[in-house]
Amino acid sequence: MTAGAPGGVAGAGLPVVLDGVSDKDAQPVAAPRPATLRQVMAQYPTGVTVITSRDPDGVPRGQVVGTFLRVSDEPELVGFFAMHASRTWLATKPTLTQFCVNIVSDHQEALCQSLASGSAPGLTGIPHSASHDGNPALHGAIAHIDCTVEQILPFGDHDFVVGRVTHAHHVSAAHPLVFFRGGFGRFASTSRTGNDHDFRAQLAEVDLLRPEMDALAAATGCAVTINALDGDETVVVAAATQAGPRALRVRVGQRLPFAAPFGSLEAAFGPDALRQRWLDADVTTGNTREQNAAVLDAVRARGYMISYGHDAHARIVSAAQQLAKRDPARRAEYLAELRNFDAVYNGKGSAGLPPEFAAGELRSIAVPVYGFDGGLAYGLTLWGPARPVSRAEQGTLVTAALRCAGACSGILGG
Ligand SMILES: Cc1cc2nc3c(=O)[nH]c(=O)nc-3n(C[C@H](O)[C@H](O)[C@H](O)COP(=O)(O)O)c2cc1C
What we know:
Elements: E1 17-18, E2 21-22, H1 37-41, E3 46-47, E4 49-54, E5 60-65, E6 69-72, E7 77-83, H2 87-92, E8 98-103, H3 109-117, E9 128-130, E10 136-138, E11 143-155, E12 158-170, E13 177-180, E14 183-186, H4 194-206, H5 210-220, E15 223-230, E16 233-240, E17 255-257, H6 264-269, H7 272-281, H8 289-302, E18 305-308, H9 310-324, H10 331-345, H11 355-358, E19 362-370, E20 376-383, H12 391-412
Antiparallel strand pairs: 1-2, 3-13, 4-5, 4-8, 6-7, 7-12, 8-11, 9-10, 11-12, 13-14, 15-16, 15-20, 16-17, 18-19, 19-20
Helix pairs in contact: 5-12, 9-10
The structure holds flavin mononucleotide.
Protein backbone atom coordinates (compact mmCIF):
# COMPACT_ATOMS: atom_id res chain seq x y z
CA MET A 1 0.00 0.00 0.00
CA THR A 2 1.39 3.45 -0.86
CA ALA A 3 1.33 6.31 1.57
CA GLY A 4 -1.51 7.98 -0.28
CA ALA A 5 -3.75 4.98 -0.71
CA PRO A 6 -6.09 5.51 2.23
CA GLY A 7 -7.35 8.79 0.79
CA GLY A 8 -7.76 7.27 -2.66
CA VAL A 9 -5.70 10.16 -4.17
CA ALA A 10 -2.76 7.99 -5.21
CA GLY A 11 -5.12 5.91 -7.24
CA ALA A 12 -5.80 9.02 -9.35
CA GLY A 13 -2.14 8.94 -10.41
CA LEU A 14 -1.17 12.20 -8.67
CA PRO A 15 1.97 12.40 -6.51
CA VAL A 16 1.04 12.39 -2.83
CA VAL A 17 2.98 14.67 -0.51
CA LEU A 18 3.43 13.81 3.13
CA ASP A 19 5.53 16.21 5.19
CA GLY A 20 6.90 17.68 2.01
CA VAL A 21 8.18 14.40 0.53
CA SER A 22 6.69 13.13 -2.71
CA ASP A 23 5.93 9.43 -2.78
CA LYS A 24 8.06 9.27 -5.95
CA ASP A 25 11.12 9.97 -3.74
CA ALA A 26 10.12 7.54 -1.02
CA GLN A 27 12.45 4.61 -0.27
CA PRO A 28 10.91 1.24 0.57
CA VAL A 29 10.48 1.07 4.32
CA ALA A 30 11.00 -2.20 6.18
CA ALA A 31 7.78 -3.47 7.72
CA PRO A 32 7.80 -2.66 11.45
CA ARG A 33 8.80 -5.64 13.54
CA PRO A 34 6.43 -6.66 16.26
CA ALA A 35 7.56 -5.04 19.49
CA THR A 36 8.29 -7.06 22.58
CA LEU A 37 6.17 -6.49 25.66
CA ARG A 38 9.24 -4.90 27.26
CA GLN A 39 9.41 -2.29 24.43
CA VAL A 40 5.71 -1.57 24.65
CA MET A 41 5.78 -1.27 28.42
CA ALA A 42 8.58 1.31 28.10
CA GLN A 43 5.88 3.66 26.75
CA TYR A 44 4.16 3.52 30.12
CA PRO A 45 5.72 5.77 32.79
CA THR A 46 6.16 4.48 36.31
CA GLY A 47 7.01 6.07 39.61
CA VAL A 48 10.25 5.04 41.29
CA THR A 49 10.63 3.54 44.75
CA VAL A 50 13.49 1.98 46.65
CA ILE A 51 12.50 -1.04 48.69
CA THR A 52 14.76 -1.20 51.74
CA SER A 53 15.25 -4.02 54.19
CA ARG A 54 18.04 -5.92 55.93
CA ASP A 55 19.72 -9.05 54.64
CA PRO A 56 20.29 -12.09 56.91
CA ASP A 57 23.52 -10.45 58.23
CA GLY A 58 21.60 -7.32 59.21
CA VAL A 59 23.17 -5.29 56.39
CA PRO A 60 20.80 -2.59 55.03
CA ARG A 61 19.89 -3.24 51.38
CA GLY A 62 17.95 -1.28 48.78
CA GLN A 63 16.43 -2.19 45.43
CA VAL A 64 15.05 0.26 42.87
CA VAL A 65 11.51 -0.85 42.06
CA GLY A 66 9.08 0.62 39.54
CA THR A 67 6.34 -1.98 40.01
CA PHE A 68 5.17 -0.69 43.39
CA LEU A 69 1.36 -0.50 43.69
CA ARG A 70 -1.47 -0.16 46.18
CA VAL A 71 -3.20 -3.52 46.50
CA SER A 72 -5.98 -2.98 49.05
CA ASP A 73 -7.35 -0.24 51.31
CA GLU A 74 -8.99 -2.49 53.90
CA PRO A 75 -6.73 -4.02 55.04
CA GLU A 76 -4.01 -1.68 53.82
CA LEU A 77 -1.86 -3.76 51.49
CA VAL A 78 0.79 -2.73 48.97
CA GLY A 79 2.93 -4.81 46.65
CA PHE A 80 5.76 -4.96 44.14
CA PHE A 81 7.32 -7.46 41.77
CA ALA A 82 10.87 -8.65 42.47
CA MET A 83 12.92 -10.29 39.72
CA HIS A 84 14.15 -13.77 40.59
CA ALA A 85 17.50 -12.78 39.02
CA SER A 86 18.05 -9.76 41.28
CA ARG A 87 21.00 -10.30 43.61
CA THR A 88 19.41 -7.95 46.14
CA TRP A 89 16.20 -9.92 46.13
CA LEU A 90 18.09 -13.23 46.34
CA ALA A 91 20.04 -11.90 49.32
CA THR A 92 17.08 -10.49 51.24
CA LYS A 93 14.21 -12.86 50.42
CA PRO A 94 15.17 -15.80 52.70
CA THR A 95 14.72 -13.86 55.97
CA LEU A 96 12.45 -11.03 54.82
CA THR A 97 9.74 -10.28 57.37
CA GLN A 98 9.47 -6.50 56.93
CA PHE A 99 10.55 -3.77 54.51
CA CYS A 100 10.14 -0.07 53.81
CA VAL A 101 8.94 1.49 50.55
CA ASN A 102 10.78 4.76 49.93
CA ILE A 103 9.03 6.94 47.31
CA VAL A 104 11.98 8.80 45.88
CA SER A 105 12.07 12.44 44.79
CA ASP A 106 13.33 13.81 41.50
CA HIS A 107 16.52 14.89 43.26
CA GLN A 108 17.44 11.26 43.84
CA GLU A 109 18.19 10.08 40.33
CA ALA A 110 21.92 9.54 40.96
CA LEU A 111 21.16 7.45 44.02
CA CYS A 112 18.78 5.25 42.00
CA GLN A 113 21.24 4.87 39.16
CA SER A 114 23.93 3.79 41.56
CA LEU A 115 21.63 1.32 43.36
CA ALA A 116 20.22 -0.15 40.14
CA SER A 117 23.71 -0.66 38.73
CA GLY A 118 24.55 -2.82 41.76
CA SER A 119 28.04 -1.22 41.80
CA ALA A 120 28.18 -0.71 45.58
CA PRO A 121 26.76 -3.34 47.93
CA GLY A 122 23.82 -2.43 50.13
CA LEU A 123 23.20 1.20 51.02
CA THR A 124 26.90 2.09 51.30
CA GLY A 125 27.30 5.86 51.02
CA ILE A 126 23.55 6.48 50.84
CA PRO A 127 22.27 8.56 53.80
CA HIS A 128 19.58 6.69 55.73
CA SER A 129 18.35 6.18 59.26
CA ALA A 130 15.81 3.94 60.98
CA SER A 131 12.22 4.33 59.83
CA HIS A 132 9.31 4.35 62.31
CA ASP A 133 9.36 0.54 62.36
CA GLY A 134 13.13 0.13 62.20
CA ASN A 135 13.67 -0.39 58.47
CA PRO A 136 16.30 1.61 56.59
CA ALA A 137 14.62 4.91 55.55
CA LEU A 138 16.35 6.93 52.83
CA HIS A 139 16.93 10.61 53.58
CA GLY A 140 15.35 12.89 51.00
CA ALA A 141 12.56 10.44 50.07
CA ILE A 142 9.05 11.85 49.71
CA ALA A 143 7.42 9.13 51.80
CA HIS A 144 8.29 6.05 53.81
CA ILE A 145 5.85 3.13 54.01
CA ASP A 146 6.76 0.43 56.53
CA CYS A 147 5.31 -3.02 55.86
CA THR A 148 5.37 -6.54 57.17
CA VAL A 149 5.46 -9.32 54.59
CA GLU A 150 1.95 -10.65 54.01
CA GLN A 151 2.65 -13.04 51.17
CA ILE A 152 5.20 -13.81 48.46
CA LEU A 153 3.78 -15.39 45.31
CA PRO A 154 5.86 -16.50 42.29
CA PHE A 155 4.68 -15.42 38.82
CA GLY A 156 6.93 -16.34 35.88
CA ASP A 157 10.39 -14.90 36.53
CA HIS A 158 9.18 -12.54 39.30
CA ASP A 159 7.87 -12.84 42.84
CA PHE A 160 4.86 -10.73 43.79
CA VAL A 161 5.59 -9.41 47.28
CA VAL A 162 2.53 -8.25 49.20
CA GLY A 163 3.13 -6.11 52.28
CA ARG A 164 0.76 -5.14 55.08
CA VAL A 165 1.26 -1.45 55.88
CA THR A 166 2.31 -0.86 59.48
CA HIS A 167 3.18 2.83 59.18
CA ALA A 168 2.98 5.35 56.34
CA HIS A 169 4.69 8.72 56.60
CA HIS A 170 4.61 11.53 54.01
CA VAL A 171 7.82 13.40 54.80
CA SER A 172 8.31 15.90 52.00
CA ALA A 173 6.39 17.85 49.37
CA ALA A 174 9.13 17.33 46.76
CA HIS A 175 8.14 16.02 43.33
CA PRO A 176 8.57 12.33 42.49
CA LEU A 177 11.16 10.76 40.24
CA VAL A 178 9.57 9.05 37.24
CA PHE A 179 10.84 6.45 34.76
CA PHE A 180 9.84 6.53 31.09
CA ARG A 181 11.31 4.98 27.91
CA GLY A 182 14.35 3.70 29.73
CA GLY A 183 15.26 7.01 31.37
CA PHE A 184 14.57 8.96 34.55
CA GLY A 185 12.57 12.18 34.41
CA ARG A 186 10.42 14.48 36.48
CA PHE A 187 6.74 15.18 36.77
CA ALA A 188 5.27 18.32 35.19
CA SER A 189 1.67 19.23 35.81
CA THR A 190 -0.43 20.25 32.81
CA SER A 191 -3.30 21.40 34.95
CA ARG A 192 -3.61 24.72 36.68
CA THR A 193 -2.89 23.78 40.25
CA GLY A 194 -3.46 25.96 43.26
CA ASN A 195 0.25 26.72 43.23
CA ASP A 196 0.14 28.04 39.65
CA HIS A 197 -2.67 30.38 40.59
CA ASP A 198 -0.78 31.53 43.65
CA PHE A 199 2.29 32.23 41.56
CA ARG A 200 0.38 34.26 38.95
CA ALA A 201 -1.36 36.30 41.62
CA GLN A 202 2.02 36.97 43.20
CA LEU A 203 3.41 38.38 39.95
CA ALA A 204 0.66 41.01 39.87
CA GLU A 205 1.18 41.81 43.55
CA VAL A 206 4.91 42.42 43.11
CA ASP A 207 4.15 45.45 40.94
CA LEU A 208 2.93 47.18 44.09
CA LEU A 209 6.44 46.91 45.52
CA ARG A 210 8.22 48.47 42.57
CA PRO A 211 8.44 52.06 43.95
CA GLU A 212 10.16 50.75 47.10
CA MET A 213 12.55 48.60 45.06
CA ASP A 214 13.40 51.53 42.77
CA ALA A 215 14.00 53.80 45.76
CA LEU A 216 16.39 51.29 47.36
CA ALA A 217 18.25 50.79 44.08
CA ALA A 218 18.59 54.57 43.64
CA ALA A 219 19.71 55.17 47.21
CA THR A 220 22.36 52.44 47.24
CA GLY A 221 23.38 52.22 43.59
CA CYS A 222 22.80 48.48 43.85
CA ALA A 223 20.57 46.08 41.94
CA VAL A 224 17.50 44.95 43.88
CA THR A 225 15.44 41.87 43.05
CA ILE A 226 12.38 40.11 44.40
CA ASN A 227 12.28 36.32 44.51
CA ALA A 228 9.21 34.12 44.81
CA LEU A 229 8.85 30.40 45.28
CA ASP A 230 7.30 28.48 42.38
CA GLY A 231 6.98 24.81 43.26
CA ASP A 232 10.48 23.48 43.88
CA GLU A 233 12.28 26.50 42.42
CA THR A 234 12.89 30.10 43.40
CA VAL A 235 12.29 32.62 40.63
CA VAL A 236 13.44 36.21 40.21
CA VAL A 237 10.10 37.95 39.57
CA ALA A 238 11.18 41.61 39.54
CA ALA A 239 14.41 43.56 39.28
CA ALA A 240 15.37 47.20 39.79
CA THR A 241 18.83 47.92 38.44
CA GLN A 242 21.04 50.95 38.15
CA ALA A 243 22.29 51.45 34.62
CA GLY A 244 26.08 51.57 34.60
CA PRO A 245 29.03 49.96 32.93
CA ARG A 246 29.63 47.51 35.79
CA ALA A 247 26.03 47.11 36.85
CA LEU A 248 25.14 43.64 37.86
CA ARG A 249 22.62 41.87 35.69
CA VAL A 250 20.20 39.51 37.39
CA ARG A 251 17.68 38.28 34.88
CA VAL A 252 13.99 38.30 35.71
CA GLY A 253 12.83 34.72 35.28
CA GLN A 254 16.10 33.22 36.52
CA ARG A 255 15.25 30.02 38.34
CA LEU A 256 17.28 28.16 40.92
CA PRO A 257 16.39 24.98 42.80
CA PHE A 258 14.74 25.42 46.18
CA ALA A 259 17.49 23.34 47.76
CA ALA A 260 20.73 24.10 49.57
CA PRO A 261 22.81 26.09 48.93
CA PHE A 262 19.98 28.23 47.51
CA GLY A 263 16.66 29.18 49.05
CA SER A 264 17.88 29.39 52.66
CA LEU A 265 15.98 32.67 53.16
CA GLU A 266 12.61 31.12 52.26
CA ALA A 267 13.42 27.98 54.24
CA ALA A 268 14.51 30.01 57.30
CA PHE A 269 11.53 32.37 57.41
CA GLY A 270 8.82 30.20 55.83
CA PRO A 271 6.51 27.76 57.60
CA ASP A 272 7.89 24.57 59.10
CA ALA A 273 6.72 22.42 56.15
CA LEU A 274 8.82 24.58 53.83
CA ARG A 275 11.84 24.25 56.10
CA GLN A 276 11.46 20.45 56.10
CA ARG A 277 11.08 20.39 52.31
CA TRP A 278 14.30 22.38 51.91
CA LEU A 279 16.15 20.14 54.34
CA ASP A 280 14.95 17.06 52.43
CA ALA A 281 15.91 18.46 49.06
CA ASP A 282 19.65 18.96 49.57
CA VAL A 283 21.67 16.76 47.23
CA THR A 284 24.46 19.14 46.46
CA THR A 285 26.24 20.53 49.49
CA GLY A 286 27.35 17.35 51.22
CA ASN A 287 26.10 18.88 54.49
CA THR A 288 24.29 16.78 57.04
CA ARG A 289 20.68 17.65 57.78
CA GLU A 290 21.84 19.07 61.12
CA GLN A 291 24.38 21.35 59.45
CA ASN A 292 21.74 22.67 57.06
CA ALA A 293 19.31 23.18 59.94
CA ALA A 294 22.03 25.18 61.72
CA VAL A 295 22.41 27.38 58.62
CA LEU A 296 18.67 28.13 58.73
CA ASP A 297 18.79 28.87 62.45
CA ALA A 298 21.70 31.27 61.88
CA VAL A 299 19.86 33.07 59.05
CA ARG A 300 16.75 33.37 61.22
CA ALA A 301 18.68 34.66 64.21
CA ARG A 302 20.52 37.20 62.05
CA GLY A 303 17.30 38.31 60.33
CA TYR A 304 18.75 38.17 56.83
CA MET A 305 20.93 36.06 54.53
CA ILE A 306 24.31 37.29 53.36
CA SER A 307 26.75 35.91 50.79
CA TYR A 308 30.18 36.84 49.55
CA GLY A 309 32.24 36.37 46.41
CA HIS A 310 31.12 37.59 43.00
CA ASP A 311 32.82 34.97 40.82
CA ALA A 312 31.90 32.14 43.14
CA HIS A 313 28.25 33.08 42.95
CA ALA A 314 28.23 33.49 39.17
CA ARG A 315 29.86 30.08 38.78
CA ILE A 316 27.46 28.45 41.13
CA VAL A 317 24.36 29.87 39.45
CA SER A 318 25.69 28.54 36.17
CA ALA A 319 26.46 25.12 37.74
CA ALA A 320 22.95 24.92 39.23
CA GLN A 321 21.38 25.73 35.88
CA GLN A 322 23.56 23.17 34.10
CA LEU A 323 22.70 20.61 36.76
CA ALA A 324 19.03 21.22 36.04
CA LYS A 325 19.68 20.04 32.45
CA ARG A 326 20.52 16.63 33.91
CA ASP A 327 23.50 15.68 31.79
CA PRO A 328 24.77 12.56 33.61
CA ALA A 329 28.29 12.92 32.12
CA ARG A 330 28.91 16.27 33.86
CA ARG A 331 26.74 15.84 36.94
CA ALA A 332 29.65 15.08 39.30
CA GLU A 333 31.53 18.18 38.15
CA TYR A 334 28.53 20.50 38.74
CA LEU A 335 27.79 18.92 42.09
CA ALA A 336 31.42 19.51 43.16
CA GLU A 337 31.11 23.18 42.22
CA LEU A 338 27.95 23.52 44.26
CA ARG A 339 29.64 21.91 47.24
CA ASN A 340 32.61 24.26 47.05
CA PHE A 341 30.25 27.16 46.94
CA ASP A 342 28.28 26.35 50.04
CA ALA A 343 30.92 27.69 52.43
CA VAL A 344 30.84 31.02 50.63
CA TYR A 345 27.11 31.34 50.30
CA ASN A 346 26.19 31.34 53.94
CA GLY A 347 28.88 33.33 55.76
CA LYS A 348 28.72 31.97 59.31
CA GLY A 349 29.77 35.04 61.28
CA SER A 350 33.07 36.87 61.42
CA ALA A 351 35.10 33.83 62.52
CA GLY A 352 34.01 31.92 59.48
CA LEU A 353 34.16 34.73 56.94
CA PRO A 354 35.38 33.41 53.61
CA PRO A 355 38.49 34.82 51.92
CA GLU A 356 36.37 36.72 49.42
CA PHE A 357 35.32 39.04 52.21
CA ALA A 358 38.89 40.23 52.60
CA ALA A 359 38.52 41.77 49.16
CA GLY A 360 35.16 43.26 50.25
CA GLU A 361 33.26 41.13 47.76
CA LEU A 362 29.78 41.48 49.18
CA ARG A 363 27.61 39.44 46.85
CA SER A 364 24.10 39.68 48.25
CA ILE A 365 21.92 40.54 51.22
CA ALA A 366 18.50 38.85 51.19
CA VAL A 367 15.70 39.86 53.56
CA PRO A 368 12.17 38.56 54.11
CA VAL A 369 9.02 40.38 52.92
CA TYR A 370 5.81 39.35 54.70
CA GLY A 371 2.31 39.13 53.21
CA PHE A 372 -1.09 40.05 54.65
CA ASP A 373 -1.37 36.71 56.46
CA GLY A 374 1.86 37.45 58.32
CA GLY A 375 3.68 34.65 56.49
CA LEU A 376 6.73 34.99 54.26
CA ALA A 377 5.67 36.32 50.84
CA TYR A 378 8.94 37.11 49.03
CA GLY A 379 12.66 37.42 49.39
CA LEU A 380 14.10 40.85 48.63
CA THR A 381 17.75 40.77 47.57
CA LEU A 382 20.14 43.67 47.41
CA TRP A 383 23.12 42.76 45.21
CA GLY A 384 26.50 44.02 46.35
CA PRO A 385 28.27 46.48 44.04
CA ALA A 386 31.19 45.44 41.82
CA ARG A 387 33.69 47.25 44.07
CA PRO A 388 35.08 46.61 47.53
CA VAL A 389 32.60 47.13 50.38
CA SER A 390 33.78 47.93 53.91
CA ARG A 391 32.20 46.39 57.01
CA ALA A 392 30.63 49.74 57.84
CA GLU A 393 29.11 50.09 54.38
CA GLN A 394 27.86 46.53 54.58
CA GLY A 395 26.02 47.45 57.77
CA THR A 396 24.45 50.47 56.05
CA LEU A 397 23.30 48.29 53.15
CA VAL A 398 21.81 45.69 55.52
CA THR A 399 19.88 48.44 57.34
CA ALA A 400 18.61 49.90 54.04
CA ALA A 401 17.51 46.46 52.77
CA LEU A 402 15.71 45.66 56.01
CA ARG A 403 13.97 49.05 55.99
CA CYS A 404 12.86 48.53 52.36
CA ALA A 405 11.57 45.01 53.13
CA GLY A 406 9.65 46.45 56.08
CA ALA A 407 8.03 49.04 53.79
CA CYS A 408 7.18 46.31 51.26
CA SER A 409 5.61 44.17 54.00
CA GLY A 410 3.58 47.23 55.04
CA ILE A 411 2.29 47.64 51.47
CA LEU A 412 1.21 43.99 51.40
CA GLY A 413 -0.41 44.31 54.82
CA GLY A 414 2.17 42.00 56.41
C1 LIG B 1 13.39 2.51 37.21
C2 LIG B 1 13.71 1.10 37.60
C3 LIG B 1 12.70 0.27 38.01
C4 LIG B 1 12.96 -1.04 38.39
N1 LIG B 1 11.94 -1.82 38.82
C5 LIG B 1 12.20 -3.07 39.25
C6 LIG B 1 11.16 -3.87 39.79
O1 LIG B 1 9.99 -3.47 39.84
N2 LIG B 1 11.48 -5.10 40.25
C7 LIG B 1 12.77 -5.57 40.22
O2 LIG B 1 13.02 -6.69 40.64
N3 LIG B 1 13.78 -4.81 39.71
C8 LIG B 1 13.53 -3.59 39.24
N4 LIG B 1 14.55 -2.81 38.75
C9 LIG B 1 15.89 -3.39 38.67
C10 LIG B 1 16.59 -3.35 40.03
O3 LIG B 1 16.55 -2.10 40.62
C11 LIG B 1 18.07 -3.73 39.93
O4 LIG B 1 18.62 -3.13 38.83
C12 LIG B 1 18.16 -5.20 39.83
O5 LIG B 1 17.70 -5.68 41.03
C13 LIG B 1 19.62 -5.67 39.56
O6 LIG B 1 20.44 -5.30 40.59
P1 LIG B 1 20.88 -6.37 41.68
O7 LIG B 1 21.16 -7.65 40.96
O8 LIG B 1 22.11 -5.74 42.29
O9 LIG B 1 19.76 -6.50 42.63
C14 LIG B 1 14.30 -1.52 38.35
C15 LIG B 1 15.32 -0.68 37.95
C16 LIG B 1 15.04 0.62 37.58
C17 LIG B 1 16.15 1.52 37.15
